[in-house]
Amino acid sequence: MSREVEYEPVSVKAVLAEMKDTAELLIDLSYSAVLLRSDQVAEEVLELEERMDVLQLRARMGLLMAARTTEDAEALAPVLGIVGAAEKISDAAGDIAKVVLEDIGLPEAMRTALPESVESLVRAGVEADSSLAGPTLGESNLETETGVRVIAIRRGGDWLLNPGVDTALRAGDVTLLRGPEDGIAEVYERLTGDRYDPPEPPAEGVTDLDRAMDSIVLMKDISELAVDLAYGAVLFDSDGLAEEVLELEAEVDALQSRFEAWTLRAAADVDDPVSLRGLMHLAAATEVISDAALEISEGVLRGLGTHPVIEEAVLESDEVIVRLAVAPGSRLDGATLGDVAVKTETGMRVIAVRRGPDREGGDWVVSPGPATALHGDDVVIAKGTRTGAERLAELADATV
Fold it and tell me: Are the beta carbons of 148 and 348 closer than 8 angstroms?
């Protein structure tokens, strides 16, 4: 039964920060539920979705109480848009979780395809003799050193969501890890004592079904990137980033059209076409996430600017987004992201680079990879922990 919610004075900034963190965690957990075929993780998604319902009501009540003039209404309209977008992401994550809970048809190969996305999602138990059993996540400096984040811990019958730096791992815990595959392999072995073997792709040739699943994986990656860039756009009031979100949303729409075509063609070749229903649900929910990203950045696109409460909420969330200028002569100047191992050395994920005005006309490079070279006067947009942000700032500083 849904709980009753009454107005109470709350910090809209704190509620927005919690909504942002919860929405991002929901995306992680929902796809983890599919990957692991875990009813428990899926049920946790639905509980968080209910929590999000309460948060968005409290945020709307607080914003309505704050609007007293037409100027207030204009300034707060983008904030309402962000509230609604976070709720959309929550609903989409719930729809993904129901693919697991309601046993909606999903090809087994889809679970092989998912880990091939930008970052892997892996389940790992904590053995008693693990070097990571006992210290807190902050003491082990896990994310900064490896780029791997513990997104959830199952302890006994309970789930600990979004563990922080003060959370200690214990023998017998089951962790959900997210990060680059090389970092995952290291952390998995330290936790379990066993070698990590990534899922092998199907041996068969490329089929229409393979193409459909590849489209979903790409839609997932682009949608997650769009959400990150959207929060960056509102934090820095950046038209350039907001325009990139618009382009990414259009790309997801195009991918969904291709996905539908591949799936319809694949239905003629499978014994039970009903088994493809889960793919349709995943694609529809993923497309909603990209739509929500566009809603987050809509205020910037329409010239309404960014309300200070949004900036403060993003800055106070568990994962921070930073903008750093690459100083000429710094370690980043002239190096690629792979040369300086930015991801593993700092734990920060570089989500965009704006070229300096003398290079490529100040264009944006979205979702840069290890081969992306940086130069003096480039601007880097990155996401991660506060400690990681400090280490990245040192790499971009010529005086360190």
Answer: no
